[in-house]
Protein backbone atom coordinates (compact mmCIF):
# COMPACT_ATOMS: atom_id res chain seq x y z
CA UNK A 1 0.00 0.00 0.00
CA UNK A 2 1.43 3.38 -1.00
CA UNK A 3 0.86 5.89 1.79
CA UNK A 4 0.38 9.60 1.25
CA UNK A 5 3.08 11.10 3.40
CA UNK A 6 2.10 14.41 5.02
CA UNK A 7 4.15 16.88 6.95
CA UNK A 8 2.13 18.71 9.58
CA UNK A 9 3.21 22.14 10.81
CA UNK A 10 1.64 23.80 13.82
CA UNK A 11 1.84 27.58 14.01
CA UNK A 12 0.95 28.90 17.45
CA UNK A 13 -1.21 32.03 17.68
CA UNK A 14 -3.20 33.30 20.63
CA UNK A 15 -6.02 30.87 19.98
CA UNK A 16 -5.32 27.34 21.21
CA UNK A 17 -4.35 24.28 19.25
CA UNK A 18 -5.08 20.58 19.77
CA UNK A 19 -3.40 17.39 18.59
CA UNK A 20 -3.94 13.61 18.81
CA UNK A 21 -1.22 11.01 18.06
CA UNK A 22 -2.24 7.46 17.86
CA UNK A 23 -3.94 9.31 19.39
CA UNK A 24 -2.74 12.87 19.83
CA UNK A 25 -4.79 15.96 18.95
CA UNK A 26 -3.74 19.29 17.47
CA UNK A 27 -4.59 22.32 15.31
CA UNK A 28 -2.59 22.48 12.10
CA UNK A 29 -0.96 24.09 9.16
CA UNK A 30 -0.59 21.17 6.79
CA UNK A 31 1.54 20.56 3.75
CA UNK A 32 2.38 17.33 1.96
CA UNK A 33 5.53 16.21 0.23
CA UNK A 34 3.79 16.35 -3.14
CA UNK A 35 1.38 19.29 -2.97
CA UNK A 36 1.69 22.27 -0.69
CA UNK A 37 -1.71 22.88 0.90
CA UNK A 38 -1.65 25.42 3.69
CA UNK A 39 -4.36 25.57 6.35
CA UNK A 40 -4.11 28.88 8.19
CA UNK A 41 -4.77 28.93 11.91
CA UNK A 42 -8.02 30.87 12.39
CA UNK A 43 -8.57 34.01 14.43
CA UNK A 44 -10.27 33.83 17.81
CA UNK A 45 -13.86 33.72 16.52
CA UNK A 46 -13.19 31.51 13.52
CA UNK A 47 -13.65 27.71 13.66
CA UNK A 48 -10.95 26.02 15.69
CA UNK A 49 -8.93 23.60 13.55
CA UNK A 50 -8.32 20.16 15.06
CA UNK A 51 -6.32 17.25 13.67
CA UNK A 52 -6.44 13.73 15.02
CA UNK A 53 -3.74 11.23 14.10
CA UNK A 54 -5.12 7.71 14.15
CA UNK A 55 -8.67 6.46 13.62
CA UNK A 56 -8.71 3.65 16.16
CA UNK A 57 -10.91 3.55 19.25
CA UNK A 58 -9.26 6.64 20.76
CA UNK A 59 -9.04 8.80 17.64
CA UNK A 60 -12.49 8.04 16.26
CA UNK A 61 -14.23 8.52 19.60
CA UNK A 62 -12.22 11.73 20.18
CA UNK A 63 -13.66 13.15 16.97
CA UNK A 64 -17.16 12.30 18.17
CA UNK A 65 -16.78 13.60 21.75
CA UNK A 66 -15.30 16.85 20.46
CA UNK A 67 -18.26 17.40 18.15
CA UNK A 68 -20.62 16.71 21.06
CA UNK A 69 -18.70 18.98 23.45
CA UNK A 70 -18.95 21.98 21.12
CA UNK A 71 -22.40 21.24 19.65
CA UNK A 72 -24.25 23.81 21.77
CA UNK A 73 -21.49 26.38 22.21
CA UNK A 74 -20.62 29.52 20.31
CA UNK A 75 -17.20 28.00 19.55
CA UNK A 76 -17.12 26.03 16.32
CA UNK A 77 -14.53 23.39 15.46
CA UNK A 78 -13.27 21.84 12.25
CA UNK A 79 -11.77 18.37 12.70
CA UNK A 80 -9.68 16.23 10.36
CA UNK A 81 -8.75 12.62 11.17
CA UNK A 82 -5.61 11.12 9.59
CA UNK A 83 -5.30 7.33 9.39
CA UNK A 84 -2.35 5.56 7.78
CA UNK A 85 -4.36 2.37 7.11
CA UNK A 86 -7.09 2.04 4.46
CA UNK A 87 -9.77 1.53 7.10
CA UNK A 88 -11.00 2.86 10.44
CA UNK A 89 -10.60 0.79 13.60
CA UNK A 90 -6.93 0.56 14.50
CA UNK A 91 -6.51 -2.64 16.50
CA UNK A 92 -10.19 -3.46 15.94
CA UNK A 93 -9.84 -5.34 12.66
CA UNK A 94 -11.82 -8.26 11.24
CA UNK A 95 -11.11 -11.05 8.82
CA UNK A 96 -14.08 -12.04 6.67
CA UNK A 97 -13.91 -15.83 6.68
CA UNK A 98 -16.06 -17.32 3.91
CA UNK A 99 -16.26 -20.98 2.97
CA UNK A 100 -19.09 -23.06 1.49
CA UNK A 101 -22.24 -21.75 3.18
CA UNK A 102 -20.40 -20.22 6.13
CA UNK A 103 -19.48 -16.58 6.60
CA UNK A 104 -18.10 -15.24 9.84
CA UNK A 105 -16.37 -11.95 10.69
CA UNK A 106 -13.46 -12.90 12.93
CA UNK A 107 -11.93 -10.24 15.17
CA UNK A 108 -8.17 -10.17 14.61
CA UNK A 109 -7.55 -7.65 17.37
CA UNK A 110 -9.78 -6.02 19.97
CA UNK A 111 -12.53 -8.61 20.29
CA UNK A 112 -14.83 -7.94 23.24
CA UNK A 113 -16.35 -5.39 25.56
CA UNK A 114 -18.70 -5.93 28.50
CA UNK A 115 -22.04 -4.70 29.78
CA UNK A 116 -20.58 -2.06 32.12
CA UNK A 117 -18.55 -0.47 29.29
CA UNK A 118 -20.81 2.55 29.18
CA UNK A 119 -19.45 4.35 26.11
CA UNK A 120 -19.13 1.28 23.88
CA UNK A 121 -22.50 -0.20 24.82
CA UNK A 122 -24.57 2.97 24.75
CA UNK A 123 -22.96 4.42 21.64
CA UNK A 124 -23.56 1.16 19.74
CA UNK A 125 -27.23 1.27 20.77
CA UNK A 126 -27.49 4.94 19.79
CA UNK A 127 -26.08 4.21 16.33
CA UNK A 128 -28.38 1.19 15.83
CA UNK A 129 -25.66 -1.45 15.79
CA UNK A 130 -26.41 -5.06 16.74
CA UNK A 131 -24.57 -7.08 19.37
CA UNK A 132 -23.26 -10.64 19.32
CA UNK A 133 -22.92 -12.25 22.74
CA UNK A 134 -19.61 -13.99 23.36
CA UNK A 135 -19.80 -17.64 22.36
CA UNK A 136 -23.03 -17.16 20.44
CA UNK A 137 -21.54 -18.78 17.31
CA UNK A 138 -20.67 -21.92 19.29
CA UNK A 139 -23.46 -22.74 21.79
CA UNK A 140 -22.64 -24.88 24.82
CA UNK A 141 -18.91 -24.24 24.47
CA UNK A 142 -16.95 -25.30 27.56
CA UNK A 143 -13.77 -23.86 29.05
CA UNK A 144 -10.73 -25.84 30.15
CA UNK A 145 -7.38 -24.84 31.69
CA UNK A 146 -4.40 -26.71 30.18
CA UNK A 147 -1.00 -26.86 31.90
CA UNK A 148 0.86 -28.69 29.13
CA UNK A 149 0.24 -32.14 30.64
CA UNK A 150 -3.38 -32.13 31.77
CA UNK A 151 -6.50 -30.04 32.17
CA UNK A 152 -6.38 -28.68 35.73
CA UNK A 153 -9.96 -27.46 35.36
CA UNK A 154 -12.78 -28.37 32.99
CA UNK A 155 -16.14 -26.65 32.86
CA UNK A 156 -19.18 -28.91 33.03
CA UNK A 157 -22.78 -28.35 32.00
CA UNK A 158 -23.69 -27.42 35.59
CA UNK A 159 -22.42 -24.16 37.08
CA UNK A 160 -23.35 -25.38 40.57
CA UNK A 161 -21.20 -28.46 40.14
CA UNK A 162 -18.32 -26.32 38.83
CA UNK A 163 -18.50 -23.99 41.83
CA UNK A 164 -18.57 -26.97 44.18
CA UNK A 165 -15.47 -28.44 42.51
CA UNK A 166 -13.63 -25.14 42.75
CA UNK A 167 -14.41 -24.65 46.44
CA UNK A 168 -13.48 -28.28 47.20
CA UNK A 169 -10.10 -27.86 45.47
CA UNK A 170 -9.21 -24.23 46.27
CA UNK A 171 -11.19 -23.42 49.40
CA UNK A 172 -12.84 -20.01 49.55
CA UNK A 173 -10.40 -18.46 47.04
CA UNK A 174 -12.96 -18.34 44.17
CA UNK A 175 -15.47 -16.48 46.37
CA UNK A 176 -12.82 -14.09 47.73
CA UNK A 177 -11.56 -13.24 44.24
CA UNK A 178 -15.09 -12.78 42.91
CA UNK A 179 -15.87 -10.32 45.70
CA UNK A 180 -12.61 -8.45 45.08
CA UNK A 181 -13.40 -8.17 41.37
CA UNK A 182 -16.86 -6.79 42.09
CA UNK A 183 -15.43 -4.27 44.58
CA UNK A 184 -12.63 -3.04 42.29
CA UNK A 185 -14.89 -2.75 39.24
CA UNK A 186 -17.41 -0.75 41.31
CA UNK A 187 -14.59 1.66 42.15
CA UNK A 188 -13.65 2.07 38.51
CA UNK A 189 -17.26 2.71 37.44
CA UNK A 190 -17.17 5.93 39.44
CA UNK A 191 -15.18 7.39 36.54
CA UNK A 192 -18.52 7.90 34.75
CA UNK A 193 -19.89 9.91 37.69
CA UNK A 194 -17.17 12.56 37.87
CA UNK A 195 -18.04 15.83 36.14
CA UNK A 196 -14.56 17.34 36.21
CA UNK A 197 -12.00 15.94 33.77
CA UNK A 198 -8.69 14.61 35.09
CA UNK A 199 -5.37 16.16 34.09
CA UNK A 200 -3.08 13.18 34.70
CA UNK A 201 -3.48 9.40 34.78
CA UNK A 202 -1.83 9.25 38.21
CA UNK A 203 -4.42 11.66 39.62
CA UNK A 204 -7.25 9.65 38.08
CA UNK A 205 -5.97 6.42 39.66
CA UNK A 206 -5.90 8.22 43.00
CA UNK A 207 -9.35 9.74 42.46
CA UNK A 208 -10.74 6.26 41.76
CA UNK A 209 -8.88 4.91 44.81
CA UNK A 210 -7.07 2.40 42.60
CA UNK A 211 -3.53 3.57 43.27
CA UNK A 212 -2.67 0.42 45.25
CA UNK A 213 -3.91 -1.86 42.45
CA UNK A 214 -1.66 -0.22 39.87
CA UNK A 215 1.45 -0.12 42.10
CA UNK A 216 1.91 -3.85 42.73
CA UNK A 217 2.14 -6.91 40.53
CA UNK A 218 -0.99 -9.03 40.55
CA UNK A 219 1.05 -11.91 42.00
CA UNK A 220 2.14 -9.87 45.04
CA UNK A 221 -1.23 -8.17 45.44
CA UNK A 222 -3.28 -11.40 45.47
CA UNK A 223 -0.89 -13.70 47.31
CA UNK A 224 0.72 -11.32 49.84
CA UNK A 225 -1.83 -8.54 50.35
CA UNK A 226 -5.03 -10.56 49.95
CA UNK A 227 -3.79 -14.04 50.93
CA UNK A 228 -5.38 -15.82 47.97
CA UNK A 229 -4.66 -19.53 47.47
CA UNK A 230 -1.54 -19.77 45.27
CA UNK A 231 -2.78 -22.79 43.33
CA UNK A 232 -6.00 -20.97 42.46
CA UNK A 233 -3.98 -18.03 41.17
CA UNK A 234 -1.93 -20.37 38.95
CA UNK A 235 -4.88 -22.41 37.68
CA UNK A 236 -7.72 -19.88 37.31
CA UNK A 237 -6.56 -16.26 37.66
CA UNK A 238 -3.32 -16.23 35.65
CA UNK A 239 -4.85 -17.94 32.58
CA UNK A 240 -7.25 -14.99 32.35
CA UNK A 241 -4.46 -12.38 32.37
CA UNK A 242 -2.65 -14.48 29.75
CA UNK A 243 -5.60 -14.66 27.35
CA UNK A 244 -6.65 -11.03 27.84
CA UNK A 245 -3.28 -9.27 27.99
CA UNK A 246 -0.65 -11.91 27.14
CA UNK A 247 0.99 -11.29 30.54
CA UNK A 248 1.55 -13.38 33.65
CA UNK A 249 0.67 -12.34 37.21
CA UNK A 250 4.29 -11.55 38.01
CA UNK A 251 4.41 -9.06 35.11
CA UNK A 252 1.04 -7.32 35.11
CA UNK A 253 -0.23 -4.88 37.73
CA UNK A 254 -3.16 -5.99 39.85
CA UNK A 255 -5.62 -3.63 38.14
CA UNK A 256 -4.88 -5.29 34.79
CA UNK A 257 -5.62 -8.68 36.32
CA UNK A 258 -8.93 -7.39 37.70
CA UNK A 259 -9.93 -6.14 34.25
CA UNK A 260 -9.10 -9.60 32.87
CA UNK A 261 -11.43 -11.17 35.44
CA UNK A 262 -14.42 -8.98 34.61
CA UNK A 263 -15.94 -10.44 31.43
CA UNK A 264 -19.59 -10.35 32.58
CA UNK A 265 -21.84 -9.80 29.58
CA UNK A 266 -19.01 -10.07 27.05
CA UNK A 267 -20.13 -9.05 23.58
CA UNK A 268 -18.98 -7.62 20.25
CA UNK A 269 -20.54 -5.66 17.38
CA UNK A 270 -22.17 -7.76 14.68
CA UNK A 271 -19.99 -7.49 11.58
CA UNK A 272 -16.97 -6.26 13.56
CA UNK A 273 -16.20 -3.82 16.38
CA UNK A 274 -14.62 -1.43 13.88
CA UNK A 275 -18.16 -0.53 12.75
CA UNK A 276 -18.68 1.44 15.98
CA UNK A 277 -15.55 3.49 15.28
CA UNK A 278 -16.74 4.16 11.74
CA UNK A 279 -19.97 5.47 13.26
CA UNK A 280 -18.02 7.72 15.64
CA UNK A 281 -16.28 9.32 12.65
CA UNK A 282 -19.48 9.52 10.60
CA UNK A 283 -21.50 11.20 13.35
CA UNK A 284 -18.66 13.57 14.29
CA UNK A 285 -18.80 15.36 10.95
CA UNK A 286 -14.98 15.18 10.80
CA UNK A 287 -13.08 14.93 7.53
CA UNK A 288 -11.49 11.47 7.30
CA UNK A 289 -8.25 10.94 5.37
CA UNK A 290 -7.39 7.26 5.01
CA UNK A 291 -4.10 5.93 3.59
CA UNK A 292 -2.46 9.05 5.03
CA UNK A 293 0.59 8.62 7.21
CA UNK A 294 1.72 11.59 9.27
CA UNK A 295 5.50 11.48 9.60
CA UNK A 296 6.38 14.89 11.03
CA UNK A 297 4.78 17.53 13.25
CA UNK A 298 6.36 20.97 13.66
CA UNK A 299 5.34 23.72 16.07
CA UNK A 300 6.39 27.18 14.85
CA UNK A 301 6.56 29.40 17.90
CA UNK A 302 6.17 33.04 16.83
CA UNK A 303 4.39 34.62 19.79
CA UNK A 304 5.83 38.13 20.37
CA UNK A 305 8.21 37.50 17.50
CA UNK A 306 10.25 34.95 19.45
CA UNK A 307 11.17 31.70 17.75
CA UNK A 308 12.23 28.60 19.71
CA UNK A 309 15.33 26.65 18.82
CA UNK A 310 14.79 23.58 16.67
CA UNK A 311 14.57 20.30 18.59
CA UNK A 312 13.73 16.89 17.18
CA UNK A 313 12.12 13.97 18.94
CA UNK A 314 10.98 10.64 17.51
CA UNK A 315 7.83 9.15 19.04
CA UNK A 316 5.59 6.40 17.68
CA UNK A 317 7.23 6.67 14.27
CA UNK A 318 6.55 10.41 13.99
CA UNK A 319 9.17 13.15 14.13
CA UNK A 320 8.29 16.11 16.36
CA UNK A 321 9.99 19.47 16.01
CA UNK A 322 9.90 22.27 18.59
CA UNK A 323 7.49 20.29 20.76
CA UNK A 324 8.16 19.41 24.39
CA UNK A 325 7.93 15.62 24.34
CA UNK A 326 9.74 14.27 27.39
CA UNK A 327 8.04 10.88 27.60
CA UNK A 328 9.02 7.29 26.92
CA UNK A 329 7.50 4.99 24.34
CA UNK A 330 4.90 2.65 25.80
CA UNK A 331 6.19 -0.96 25.47
CA UNK A 332 3.67 -3.30 23.84
CA UNK A 333 3.23 -7.08 23.88
CA UNK A 334 3.88 -8.82 20.57
CA UNK A 335 1.00 -11.23 20.06
CA UNK A 336 0.73 -13.90 17.38
CA UNK A 337 -2.86 -14.61 16.30
CA UNK A 338 -3.32 -17.79 14.29
CA UNK A 339 -6.54 -19.08 12.72
CA UNK A 340 -6.82 -22.72 11.77
CA UNK A 341 -9.66 -24.71 10.27
CA UNK A 342 -9.20 -28.39 10.86
CA UNK A 343 -9.56 -31.15 13.45
CA UNK A 344 -7.78 -31.12 16.78
CA UNK A 345 -5.48 -34.01 17.63
CA UNK A 346 -6.81 -35.53 20.89
CA UNK A 347 -3.50 -37.25 21.67
CA UNK A 348 -1.83 -33.81 21.95
CA UNK A 349 -4.07 -33.22 24.97
CA UNK A 350 -3.63 -36.79 26.27
CA UNK A 351 -7.17 -37.76 25.30
CA UNK A 352 -8.60 -40.37 22.96
CA UNK A 353 -11.50 -38.41 21.46
CA UNK A 354 -11.93 -34.74 20.53
CA UNK A 355 -15.33 -34.77 22.22
CA UNK A 356 -13.58 -35.56 25.52
CA UNK A 357 -12.01 -32.15 26.07
CA UNK A 358 -13.03 -28.46 26.14
CA UNK A 359 -13.25 -26.32 23.01
CA UNK A 360 -12.22 -23.07 24.76
CA UNK A 361 -8.73 -23.73 26.13
CA UNK A 362 -6.74 -21.34 28.35
CA UNK A 363 -3.27 -22.15 29.66
CA UNK A 364 -1.24 -21.85 32.85
CA UNK A 365 2.23 -20.38 33.13
CA UNK A 366 3.83 -23.81 33.54
CA UNK A 367 6.50 -23.35 30.89
CA UNK A 368 5.13 -26.42 29.11
CA UNK A 369 2.40 -24.81 27.02
CA UNK A 370 2.95 -23.72 23.41
CA UNK A 371 0.14 -21.17 23.27
CA UNK A 372 -1.77 -18.75 25.47
CA UNK A 373 -5.24 -19.81 24.37
CA UNK A 374 -7.00 -21.89 21.74
CA UNK A 375 -10.69 -21.28 21.12
CA UNK A 376 -13.03 -22.94 18.67
CA UNK A 377 -15.17 -20.25 17.02
CA UNK A 378 -17.55 -22.25 14.86
CA UNK A 379 -18.15 -25.81 13.62
CA UNK A 380 -18.17 -26.03 9.83
CA UNK A 381 -20.50 -28.21 7.75
CA UNK A 382 -17.81 -30.83 7.19
CA UNK A 383 -17.19 -31.20 10.94
CA UNK A 384 -14.01 -29.12 11.03
CA UNK A 385 -13.72 -26.31 13.55
CA UNK A 386 -12.47 -22.78 12.96
CA UNK A 387 -10.02 -22.07 15.80
CA UNK A 388 -8.39 -18.88 17.07
CA UNK A 389 -5.01 -19.21 18.78
CA UNK A 390 -3.08 -16.61 20.80
CA UNK A 391 0.65 -17.16 21.39
CA UNK A 392 3.82 -15.26 22.21
CA UNK A 393 5.73 -17.01 19.45
CA UNK A 394 4.81 -17.88 15.90
CA UNK A 395 2.79 -21.08 15.64
CA UNK A 396 4.98 -22.95 13.16
CA UNK A 397 3.62 -25.62 10.85
CA UNK A 398 5.47 -28.19 12.95
CA UNK A 399 3.67 -27.12 16.13
CA UNK A 400 0.29 -26.86 14.40
CA UNK A 401 0.70 -30.34 12.91
CA UNK A 402 1.07 -31.70 16.43
CA UNK A 403 -1.97 -29.85 17.76
CA UNK A 404 -4.16 -30.66 14.74
CA UNK A 405 -4.60 -34.04 13.06
CA UNK A 406 -5.88 -32.23 9.94
CA UNK A 407 -5.59 -28.62 8.73
CA UNK A 408 -7.32 -27.19 5.66
CA UNK A 409 -6.63 -23.46 6.19
CA UNK A 410 -4.20 -21.39 8.25
CA UNK A 411 -3.98 -17.62 8.66
CA UNK A 412 -1.42 -15.72 10.75
CA UNK A 413 -1.38 -12.16 12.06
CA UNK A 414 1.19 -10.47 14.33
CA UNK A 415 0.14 -7.54 16.52
CA UNK A 416 1.61 -5.07 18.93
CA UNK A 417 -1.55 -5.86 20.78
CA UNK A 418 -1.58 -4.50 24.33
CA UNK A 419 0.73 -2.32 26.40
CA UNK A 420 2.82 -3.92 29.12
CA UNK A 421 0.73 -3.18 32.20
CA UNK A 422 3.77 -2.85 34.44
CA UNK A 423 3.33 -1.99 38.12
CA UNK A 424 4.31 1.38 39.55
CA UNK A 425 5.24 2.88 36.20
CA UNK A 426 5.22 6.54 35.23
CA UNK A 427 2.34 7.32 32.90
CA UNK A 428 2.83 9.56 29.86
CA UNK A 429 1.36 13.04 30.28
CA UNK A 430 -2.11 13.69 28.89
CA UNK A 431 -0.97 17.10 27.59
CA UNK A 432 2.76 16.81 26.72
CA UNK A 433 2.79 20.35 25.32
CA UNK A 434 0.27 23.18 25.32
CA UNK A 435 -2.91 22.10 23.51
CA UNK A 436 -1.18 18.91 22.41
CA UNK A 437 -2.93 15.84 23.82
CA UNK A 438 -2.07 12.14 24.04
CA UNK A 439 -5.06 9.83 24.38
CA UNK A 440 -2.95 6.68 24.75
CA UNK A 441 -1.44 8.01 27.97
CA UNK A 442 -4.27 6.07 29.66
CA UNK A 443 -3.36 2.69 28.15
CA UNK A 444 -0.67 1.63 30.69
CA UNK A 445 -3.34 1.95 33.40
CA UNK A 446 -6.10 0.05 31.59
CA UNK A 447 -6.05 -0.97 27.94
CA UNK A 448 -9.45 -1.64 26.41
CA UNK A 449 -11.57 -0.16 23.64
CA UNK A 450 -13.77 1.35 26.35
CA UNK A 451 -10.93 3.05 28.22
CA UNK A 452 -9.68 4.58 24.97
CA UNK A 453 -13.16 6.13 24.74
CA UNK A 454 -12.94 7.22 28.39
CA UNK A 455 -9.59 8.88 27.74
CA UNK A 456 -10.70 10.66 24.55
CA UNK A 457 -13.91 11.81 26.24
CA UNK A 458 -11.82 13.28 29.06
CA UNK A 459 -9.62 15.18 26.59
CA UNK A 460 -12.69 16.55 24.81
CA UNK A 461 -13.85 17.90 28.19
CA UNK A 462 -10.44 19.47 28.88
CA UNK A 463 -10.46 21.13 25.48
CA UNK A 464 -14.04 22.36 25.83
CA UNK A 465 -13.30 23.81 29.26
CA UNK A 466 -10.40 25.75 27.79
CA UNK A 467 -11.84 26.92 24.49
CA UNK A 468 -15.42 27.60 25.46
CA UNK A 469 -14.39 29.61 28.52
CA UNK A 470 -12.16 31.78 26.32
CA UNK A 471 -15.10 32.75 24.13
CA UNK A 472 -17.59 33.41 26.91
Automatic annotation (TrEMBL):
Domain called Prenylcysteine lyase: residue spans: 153-312, 313-468
GO biological process: prenylated protein catabolic process; prenylcysteine catabolic process
Keyword Isomerase: no
One protein family per Pfam: NAD_binding_8
Required co-factors: FAD
Gene Ontology molecular function, alphabetical: lyase activity; prenylcysteine oxidase activity
Alphabetical list of InterPro entries matching this protein: FAD/NAD-bd_sf, Prenylcys_lyase, Prenylcysteine_Oxase1
Keywords of the record: FAD, Flavoprotein, Glycoprotein, Lyase, Oxidoreductase, Signal
Magnesium listed as a keyword: no
Domain of life the protein comes from: Eukaryota
Gene3D superfamilies: FAD/NAD(P)-binding domain
Entry's family note: Belongs to the prenylcysteine oxidase family.
PANTHER family: FARNESYLCYSTEINE LYASE, PRENYLCYSTEINE LYASE DOMAIN-CONTAINING PROTEIN
Protein's recorded name: Prenylcysteine lyase-domain-containing protein
Organism: Gigaspora rosea
Amino acid sequence: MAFLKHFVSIRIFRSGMFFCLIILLFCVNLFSTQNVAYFEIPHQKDPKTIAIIGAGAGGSSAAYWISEAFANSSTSVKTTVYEQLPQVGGRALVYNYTRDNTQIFIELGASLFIDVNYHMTNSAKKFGLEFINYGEELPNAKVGIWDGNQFVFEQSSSSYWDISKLIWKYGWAPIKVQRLVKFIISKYLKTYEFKEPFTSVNLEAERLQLDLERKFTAQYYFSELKNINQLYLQHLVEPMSRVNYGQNLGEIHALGAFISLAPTGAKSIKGGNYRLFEKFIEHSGATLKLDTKVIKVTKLQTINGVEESVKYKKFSGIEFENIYLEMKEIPYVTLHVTFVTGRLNPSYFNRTKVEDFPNQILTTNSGKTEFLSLAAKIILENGETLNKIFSHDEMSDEVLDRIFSERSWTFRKVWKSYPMLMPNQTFPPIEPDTNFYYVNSYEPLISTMETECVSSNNIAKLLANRWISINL
